[in-house]
Batch of 4 targets.
Target 1
Amino acid sequence: MPTIQSIAGQLEPHPDVALVERVRGGDVSAYDTLVRKYERQLFRIAQHITQNREDAEDVMQDAFLKAYEKLEQFQGNSKFYTWLVRIAVNESLMRLRKRRTGKMVSIDEDIETDEGSVPRDLADWAPDPEQNYGQAELAEILRKTIQGLPQGFRIVFVLRDVEGLSTEETAETLGLSVPAVKSRLLRARLQLRERLSRYFHKKKGLMETGIVK
Amino acid sequence: MTCKDFLALLDDLIDDEVSPNMRTELQTHLGRCGHCEVVLNTTRKTIEIYRSHEIYDLPSDLRERLHAAIMSRCKKGC
């Protein structure tokens, strides 16, 4: 049964549904289209969770292969993309467990922290703070900053804010309640903001002394 | 409204999930609290920066190699 989604008040099937139906009917080229559409996102998500490029490559391949094998189990009551992301998140966590030789790895790890829950750095940022850094330097700052977040906050921020899943989809994908997603999202956003502040402050003092104009 | 109340609703404001009445209250607080205004603006900017910058690049040659590997295994029935 096709997924029905409400778009601007009208009921229309998601375009992925037709592709999934074609794959089920034996058309592998339709799966090629789906892989191409989502491979970058899956690679990004896997890299955010595993923080290792080789693991992310393996996870991305394994996730698409697993999805292909299990396509009959895709019910159509969630988006194909959300279903795919859930597989990739699970594969990523499994990969981490292997790397840590069987140690428990879960998205509940390390979240008992109050860091960042109360904003401390209240100085304003420069108007376009990223302009003060070269592209590679900025990417390094952003990587380092997000890697410092507890796993359970990082995954929520990545799915919700970077990959654009809704709060409900993020909750469904991670097996969390909606209030838990909301609470982690706020903490993640505030911690990132706090940590980025040190790079993005207005250079007020220096401008006033005339060192920087 | 205190800064703590404002902070509790920060995400709802950013995600545009507040009622018109609540929005007015939040705006009133912002009008007299420079600190909360900074927190709101810099949190918005934080999200925007992460959305608009690719920090884990997938180079096209690697992408093609991985894509080919996936499709070749799917064609063999995995």
Target 2
Amino acid sequence: MKIYSKQFALTTAGCVLGICQAQHASAAVSDEDFKKLADTVQQLSAKVGSLEQTHQQDQQKIKSLQQQAAKTKEPAREAPPQAAAPAAPIIDLAGAANHNVVLAGDAEIQFGKMSGQHAGFTMADFAPIVLYRANDNILFEAGFDITLGNNQSTLPGGNTLNNGHSTSVDLSFAQLDYLVNDYLTVIGGDMILPLGTYQERGAGWLNKIPDDPLARSILPSSGVGVQLRGAAAVGTDGSLVTYSAYGVNGPSSVDGSGNSTYADGSGNNPFNLDLGGNVGGNANLHRNPSYGGRVGYFLPFSAHHDVEVGISGQTGEWDNSGHHRWSAAVLDTAVHLGSSIEFKGEYISSWLQTEDIGTAKPDGWWVQGAYKFAGLDLDLPLINSLELVARYDALHDGFGTNTNRGTAGFVYYFTNTLQMAGDYEWFHSKGPNATPGSGFILQLSYGF
Amino acid sequence: MKNMNRPITSKQRVAAGAGFSVAVAAATALFVLPVSADNDAKAAAAKAPSLSGSELYAIHCNRCHSERYPKEFQASQWKTLLTHMRVRANLPASHAKEILKYLQEESGN
């Protein structure tokens, strides 16, 4: 209680003193001073009003700027994120580029002489392959064969004259490859057919002998249609199984008549057969395409020591209404005994049903062996670059002509892709379409 | 020569039908195979070849042509070429991938 009493007394005293002091101050301000003070207050009031106006203007400006900034941010949000910052350089070790075009292929020039003919340059050929990879699973590939030939022109008087050269351009193949998965590729277009392996692996710079085996002439080289193919590894030693199945337009008649006759409409022999078939509204484009396929097995024992065997075939009608078929079967094999020794060959059989002479059975075979002197490991570069090659092939055309041929030759490798090949060929041929004599061929080829 | 223009017999039709059925079944299996394989880690591991890319390169590429040096092409070009060779030479995908990896690494670019 004593404490509260003292506080009350002190507060009361303070108030009394305060009142007295205030009375003293008010008494000291004159009218003049009061007016000055009032003027000052009015000036300050005016300034405050001015500042309030400025503040309102500033607020409006800020609001406007904020709206502009918001508009500027919208397109920035829509822009791709990498546009905001410079991208770091990427090393394309994985070949990540989606689109890529590569030019591969080969070029050849041949000089030769057959018995009964003059020697001369017989061929100049440029065979590019355009590869366009659209992405990891799609590849388009087209092969062309551009060949020089003689050019015949007609003079005003009607006589003809060879005055230079002409150029022929053939489409060897044009196909779209879709790699569906690890085991299946779907191909559409004009395809090299997997009848044996020679055609698929037979570019000019790959053949150790400049010309093709005779028996390949009874098979189509390509066909227009669709193919399913793939391969599967067997075990972990490199062994694999390969498979392919296809449907193509198939063989047709040379004269476009759709008739499965021995001779064409002009009477030309040996038969009215176009192995390549037709595209478009010509003969044999009815509801009966040809079907074929190949199954192969590859067994490596070690690097450069391996065996491959395969069986393939194709069958289908080649006329429009008579249900006459053309069929073929091929057995192929290849053996490597080290990096220097190679053997390969094919046996080809075909059946041709005709309207007028029954079924013809053209068939043939070829075997080839090669030896690289590099296998001797001599300290002689000129010898190491040399490979010897020999082939024996036979063709029975099914119409009475039988031809056997022996070939001996060489390949000299200037580089891994520039090479000179040469061979001498002996023909033994009997029948109405016998091939005469013998001859030699030299070929300079380059693969790229 | 004997005329062989005979109509197709019922036996031939059955054989053709059976062949076609097998082909369709095989094609269907090929489409379905990777789905089941992807679900099976062991199967995926079994697919991988134990041979290296350089070993597979030596086994496969020299079968048909002279050796092509890795530095002849750039990494992206090798990818296109190996896609081409996988189709043309019918190489298994696992082998082609290992060979591509080897060639790209050795290409130096």
Target 3
Amino acid sequence: MEKIGSVAVFGAGIAGMQAALDLAETGFKVYLVDNKPAIGGVMSQLDKTFPTNDCAMCIMSPKLVDTGRHPNIEIITNADLKGIEGEAGSFTVTLKKRPRFVDESKCNGCGDCAQKCPVTLPSEFDEGMGNRKAIYKRYPQAIPNLFAIDKMGVSPCREQCPASVNIQGYVALISMGEYKKAYDLIRERQPFPAVCGRICHHPCESACNRSEVDDPVAINYLKLFAADYVLKNGYIDEEETECASPKDAKVAVVGAGPAGLTCARNLADQGYSVTIFEREDKPGGTLYTGIPNYRLDKQVLFKEADAVLRNKHIEISYGVNIGSDRSLVEIRNEGYKAVFVATGATKSGGLSVPGIDTDRVLRGIEFLHDVNVGKPVRLNGVVVVLGGGNVAVDSARTALRLGADKAVIVYRRTKKEMPAYPWEIEEALKEGVEILNSWTPAEVIAKNGRVEGIRFHKCAGVFDIEGAFSTDISLDESMVLDADYIVTATGQVPDDTVTRDLDGIETGAGGRFVADPLTLQTNVEWVFAGGDAVSGPSSMVEAVAAGHEAAESIVRFIEKRDLREGRHHSPQKKAPLPHRSVRKEARKKMPMLPVAKRMSGFDEIELGYDEKNASEEAQRCLNCAGCSECMMCVEACGCDAIDHMMKEEEMVIDTGAIILAVGYEKYDPSGLHEYGYQKYPNVVTSGEFERILSASGPFSGHIVRPSDHKEPMKIAWIQCVGSRQMREQGKAYCSSVCCMYSIKEAVIAKEHSPALDCHVYYIDIRAFGKDFDKYYERARDEYGVKFRQARLSSIDSVPGTDDLIVKYFVDSVDCDGGDEVKEERYDMIVLSAGLVSNSCNADLSRITGVALNKFGFIDTHPLFREKTSISGIYTCGAASAPRDIPETVATASASASYACALLKEERHTLTVEKQYPEQRDISNEEPRIGVFICHCGINIGSVVDVPSVTEYAKTLPCVVYAEQNLYTCSQDTQHKMKQVIQEYNINRVLIASCTPRTHEPLFQDTLKESGLNPFLIEFVGIREQCSWVHMKQKSKATQKAKQLVAMGAARAKLLAPFQRSSFPVMKKGLVVGGGVAGMTAALNLAEQGFDTYLVEKDKELGGNLRDIYYTIDGEDTQKLLSDTIREIMENEAVTVFTDSEATEIAGYVGNYTTVIRNNVSGEETQIEHGAIIVATGAVGVNTEEYLYGKSNTIVTQTELEKRIADGETFKNVTMIQCVGSRDGERPYCSRVCCQTALKNAIRIKKRVPESIVTIFYRDMRSYGFYEEYYQKAREMGVTFIRYERERKPAVSLNERKKPKIRYHNILLGRSLELSSDLLVLSTGMEPPDNKTISNTLKVPLNGEGFFLEAHAKLRPLDFTTEGVYLCGTAHSPKNIAESISQAAGAAARAATLLAKEKVQASGRTVRVKDRICSGCGICVEICPFNAREIDEQTGRARVTEVLCQGCGLCATACPNAATQQMSFTKSQIYQMIEEAV
Amino acid sequence: MKQKEESMEKENRAFEPKIIAFLCNWCTYAGADLAGVSRIQYPSNIRIIRLMCSGALDPTYVIKSLLEGADGVLIGGCHPGDCHYISGNFKARRRVAVLKASLKEAGLEPERVWLRWISASEGAYFAETVEGMVLHLKQLGPNPLKSMWAI
């Protein structure tokens, strides 16, 4: 098998990014896969980080940018793992990439789309408290800097609409006042929006998800509003339709009703010539002839029909009766390729009742037709209408308007069964129409050949049990109504004369045409039929739908394509009710014409919404589908980047190893009812509170409570929500980070408003990390955060307010004993929600085969916590256990280390290095500046007058060229820039656009590609600093932009090229310290292919590991020791020096020369190496407390462990925790003592179950999965007694020299005493004297003497001095597995250096003018990176460029200005100042 | 006399102070960027000069700005503890403290020079700072050095 030099990292939070960067820097291609549209994970959502209170985004964003920009990291967003094949070293991974709907190669992140997007959704990034648009960036600094669209399926309203009108889309457009756009969007699927708004039976509203909250959105009224707005303003009167180029085919449409017109429009839109044959004198079909004017003003219909008919590809012939005037066959012979028959159902169905042919018995359809087409129709007296459908109701209401005294509808079924729309029946009743139900006509009573009345029989039912038509008439019961007129409205049938001349066309029940339900093709292949003519009387929107289908079929028929292919309606995912709380808000009522005013004529009775009502109603829409597909973004995008048709893609990548860095999810406390989460608005989760605190959060960093946006005065944090839960089996572990983040949140909240009262309710404060205890104590003592050890009973609201009551039990004597429920009132409560395993783990496990632990986290080797159960698949960060950020980062590097070791032979096989042309020598050239000014679509151009800035730029000194670009960053502009640089011989480039922080590297690359030194660039931000922040001050923004350009040009002319110096790397490592960390680090480096020196001051390797016999998990540590030593001895790449010390270390990153002296023989060896790993460890605290040393019955845990390992049994053992830790001398937690005590206690109890084991503790810090052992110990009967720092147990020896412990019982509030056979002291760890190494390596120590890493959060294994790394207990106390993690991680960090041939200076370094340097040494003192030193020979200051980070401190401090920072020279800045005023 | 006062007052009302800002690349410059990305509006009186670190601020930049006629100078750096270069912001703090003392000696109001810690996520605070400074400088009136040139 050939191995592959690439690694796939799943999850691009801080763990994934760190692993990716380490791997890419060591020479591997990395695929960084995330299921979100942007990388950054949870850390990007955090406000500050503990214990340094660093701004999370500030410290993280350089990592984000590095990841986004790394040539060997390919970021794949919106993707999930789908399949995997192969084995360690060579995997084939299949990914499923969900569509972003934004072309990643075109989008430049300008945000024009989001400005226009009408759909506002809750922002996931702001935990639902803020809003975002449907097209969005996850957060402002998102990498990749691209927008994305989420689609949740098809909205239920649209799914219900027969014509599939994009309802959510037009409602959204109406909500933002875009009425014409809304109208046009409706018209895409419904050519008659205004008609539809009046008469549609709106099935969409029945489907509306909003009805689950209150009432459905008044979709139809909104459509009516938008349509009327457009019609009233005459927007469509003269509208020119865009005509497609004509196609050489004619189609005939019979009937200009909604089906016929829709079909004609769709065909004409594609360029087909359509001739419509219409029997009436006007278009509209039944809409014209059948619907009374009070429901549909005919002028509205004609306007919309005209808009369709204006298409020059459509011709219409009125007054043509196909069938009698011309036949279909004739039409066919005239060259029409196909015919669409859409003649409607225009004839009344027959009614066989004696006397029905009497004078003044009218047929409903014909009656309405005559009234509608304007024939004089008179009625008077009593009109009886027979039937129960819309025609019946229309006839009755029309009759009243024509002058009838009374209109009575008689229907054979019940009112409920009436097919007429209920709202029409309701209006009819209001207007005075009477309705009699369950009567069937028996006989028309006539006198003198004219109607006089009508007799009815009672009708009990219409259908029999099987549902077949069968009237159950009771002849015994009858009645007679007097009547002057009778209108029959009992059915509608098509007029089949149209096909009279066409042989063999099939018709069915009621004379309806038979057509294929999918294609609408009849049995005559060139004849298609649809609408009421096929379906019988139905709604106009169904007819429109038929028109669409007919057009589609006809096109396919003409083009001789398959009529059916791909047309089966595959069920689309229906968007569910959005999961969020929605404020109830009643649906807006439609204003109606008062009944009194109706009868005088045929005026429309629905008056329509006003703009305010429409806008408010539209905002009730829940945006179920997310994106509404209104296409506003498509229009807004200047880059043509948005593609709503994107489909899910499958990607296959070949990769040698896999790292699962999928992180965790936040526990959702809504299932725990006693906490009141989601019931009370001011109970928030810690994640939500982070966003509240964040300056870029939903409240801009003002601490307010959600219910009323008032500043809270008192907040409580409730710890262990979803952690340490006994009743919820899956949450029995400790989430490790909640104590600290809650303390941090309380501290930051106090910083926001010092008067704020912050209380933390806890079980144990688990501040076990480096410098955590100090932070806890500062929070308590300096900030005044109050901590209360208590158990929560419940959280309730204070009636009538948004305040909350915490009810709790206290285990403290100060509160009168244990069981009493106390309570306290708060303005706001933060639930410290735990970390739960990522829900995607189950899928990952199924696909990859990696095992999960019982809590759903990825299971790992207990000692090698990055190794999963599958070889070649590693994990890191919170994917495998709850972890804080530094641990996450360390494990990420460790996972990279293992992957590197696996693939070391393939290093640099898949990575790329870009080749550039040789740089032009410009030293003898006058400055020639080329200026490129960006419009950024409209982002800059709409505010800043870019053309005038460009003209102005041309007048500036040294400027030889200036141009404006739509997007300066676009591919084509980059290309042009290169040409311009050549053509005009430009040697300085000035870009005026967005911000150098994101875009400078891109332009620097372009400069390099055109043969210029990349430092010959100047960048001014006229978007972030002008157009976006002075939107309403256009002239001032322009003036400022000009001045910024002038400042930039002034500086540009002074820019000088410089080469970043580089030095070869000595590809060997030195590890100082041969404990478990040092050994692991050395072995990892060697396994990655680097020769390594391991120096140990003792005569044997092993360090503290020699004294440890087993871990709490039961791992045999002595076996680990011997295995590791054996592997080291067998590995030729490791050279071990025991009894030795590194006495002199000289050099700098990549190039060290070190002298190693053997302390026994005095022999000295000089070695050369490129990197150093410090693993000098820690030692056990020596104590004299608790009479230690006075009796052999008082021992340390280490001594106990040895005795247990030797097989000794114990009857009565007492342990005291925090001996020599968390006190004045050592204010830190030693982290391992609690687990050690538990480990030994369990061993003792296991061996002798009846033995007595008592543990005195302050806080049990059994973090993470160790919590289980705490539970287990308690179950086994170990007694835990809490003591306070101020009241430590007092130990004395009894007459038999056995320890006697007197202690203060907190629960009982008095002193008690117990005796024991053995007292075991949990003594902590302390650093050895590290001063010598600290001085030799110039790396700092913290206050307690542990080494101080470069950054507590994101660079836990690095020193600020490049090339020197740190791991193990030299960093801070930790257990074996944690030390191994750090050691492997440090090896990966070192490998990022050793894998390179050369190490390059990082950037804008400083240079020294020897001539004026006085050698005063101020620069040496001020440099934080040891990059400055005095050359002993010349006496002048020197710069070690590889170490220089480019801060410029020394340049500023230099009294002679001998040191100057390249690109930030004083003269450059002075020039800018001059131009700025 | 009164007329003169009135006309001076009028001038002050119309007076638009010029502010030069020296912002560190990692925090405050990024904060200014975020103000832009978030479309937070603030007065256009400010001209930003980017430095890699607030600790690289040479006091002569401030003096030069004031001599050239700027009415105010804003220096922006990372919050204490957040410095990308470990402690450059503390060095800025010390320098500015000394500088302000000497400005006073020179007869210039030290409150023309503002030092603020503004993080990359504090776009709104950046905008507020500019707004506050413009307001303050309007009350303070134009840089007196300007009228001295006239002489």
Target 4
Amino acid sequence: MTRHSTHLAGLRALGLMGLAALWPLQGCTHDLLQVTNPDIIENVNTPSGALALKNGVILRLEQVTAGLGGNGPDNLFIYGGLLADEWRSGDTFVQRNDMDQRLFDPTNTFLAGPFRSLNRVRVQGQTAISKLRQYSPSPASNIGLMFALTAFVENLAGEYYCNGIPLSSANPDGTFAYGDPISDDSAFALAMATADSALAYQSGPDSARVRQLALIVKARALLNRGQVAAAATVLAGVATTFHYDATYSANAGQNELWNLNTSIKRYTMGDNEGGNGLPFSSANDPRIPRKIGGPVFDSATPLVAILQGIWGRYSSVQVATGVEARLIEAEAALQAGQFTTWLNALNALRSNTALYPVPQTGYTSGPALAPLADPGTQAARENLMFRERAFWLFSTGHRLGDLRRLARQYGRPVESLYPTGLYVKGGLYGNAVSLPIPRDEQNNPKFVQCSDQNP
Amino acid sequence: MSDEPFFPKWSWVNSVRLRGAFGASGVQPGTTDALHFFAPKTSNVDGTDAAAIVDSSLGNPNLKPERAREFEIGGEATLLDNRISVELTYYNKRTSDALIARTVAPSLGASVTRFENLGAVVNRGFEGLINARVIERAAFGWDVSLNFSYNTNFIADMGGVPPIIGTTTSQVQGYPINGWWQRPYTFSDADGNGVITANEITVGPSNVFVGYANPRWEISGTTGFDLLNKKLRIEGLFDAKTGFYQLDGTERIRCQSRLNCRAELDATAPLWQQAAVVALRESGTTTQYGYIERGDFLRLREASATYELPATVARAVRADRLTFTVAGRNLWKTTKFAGIDPEANYFGGATGIVSNFQTQPPPTYWTFRLNVAF
């Protein structure tokens, strides 16, 4: 009995010693479970985090404009140009053929990437603005730049997409704040307000550039709303030589206008596409160097590849320019009946050969542009105005919005503007005038479909 | 159960067993699935590469483990002097908080998907097995085996998540996981000219459920004959799967993009094929409805013959036993599926969706095998 009690007491003592030995480990448990994963970044609440977020927004803008537009290489500039007359599909992918054929199809799987990328600029721009204000408020022009880029894509949304654009965002608690669909005009109004916010953040070494970018975006939104005189007034401080570029590199991503057209020939330049298209190639215009590049990617497509020579693999793309500012001023003069001012503005640009793009090696560029003469009628002047815009601003995200403006503001019949008739791969051109909101958006309970497909 | 005193003693029943089971299991989300985090990138800022971060994952702070509980009841019996055995099992599995990568609305400007817990997914059905030695003589034998299963799968509760809409499949409460959904259409050759045109097609206003992406019935039957004093065995394995649909992506791309399918080139193509193309290309509301077809099939999966060579031949090569087998796989099938094969699956087993897209069907091949036993 005594030996048994002693044995039990010994076991108890051993157990207590064991518990005592394990006691300090409870303090380790929390830390042991808090393993840092080096592949992800959770905390951006630092000055360097805020600046890196700003750079991330710039990357997203590069992607949606002329870079990797989403899940695939198609960005808004080239995909919108496919619907308009700038680009044609030389491809096997039906998603490109359908857009080229003007089929309004929300189930087109190439739509989701660019729309998501556009919204990434907007949503992450808002995050960057918040973090810059909190952790890196100086120079203020960084915040202004974020506002300006956000305004830029808000305006693009209105130019590219059908009426009824949802603009959503995620809440900090992980829930979603789904946006109610808004009209294109509301998107333009939103872009104007955001551009005004950009103009409020002016100090810093980059302030002149940010200011000019914001002014051009605001003027472009005003133009889209039909307020061309007000747009021209906004632009007084913008230099003709100004340009804001989306830039590319081996590490940040290549210029997909070059890749999809010049490199892999899945796109070919439009040249009088569908009867109404402009002769972007055969006009032999120095603003669009080009050359013939053999067959297109899809051997079943009866088209030759017309390759643009403006951009190389890592060339930057001018997304907002002083040339655009002068063109808006010229359009204001035209609408005001100041035909001499209008013509002089166009000819001043045409005679400035420094504004022409430098052709890539091996590409043909047309002779310097001769001065234009007044064609004499209002319709012909409008045609000339939009033709000048199309050649100066080729594949920089303007043409689709311009075709819609011609229909919406100038009363031109849609079928006199967009490619029409027999489609090169069979069937007829469809009737799309804008990009549909992609079907994936139906995961937003507030969105059903576009409210209309008006220009 | 057949050993119990209350169970009747029938001469043709050898044994009867009843069984039941209940189990529960869980699946944890990935280690970072719940986290909102950013990813490092390189941005080119005014011509110079610079460090950047971009939103990478929305995260979901409310993400929970997936939990499944399942019960099954069943029985086994052997009959007729153990020459027939039968098994039947009913199962009912309810997966709560099922982890699913939900497509995120692009207007959120975020990642393409994020993990969410679907309220509940139910799988229930039964499985059965019948083995029979129909004839068993010294010189001749015939045996049959039949394996079958039936499954019903549906989303019982979306857990407050709105329907998840994909291009051809969707997740909708009350319907199966990865079910096919498309806008339906009707057609009529109104002018009787044998050619379907866009004005002879009526496309429905919204998607409807077309059918299961996975088979509901799977039946596998084997039968074998032992001949020549059981020196020769001839065996056949049949597979049948029914109750599912497959997207004929090969024909769809040929009609939609390559423009070399029969319905594009041949005015005498069946009206249903013409209608599928018109609905796909010219209706203004393109739908792949015409290319989602029933995938039911019956296939001779394998036929084989195994012959045991005479002992003298075996001894000549100093072996105890020599057998020679010739077997053919995927030798024959019958199906109404118009595509290349209802089992040609572009996605493999990753998604559970059967869809061919320029995918080769299961190949037919022969094997010859000599077994030598020492």
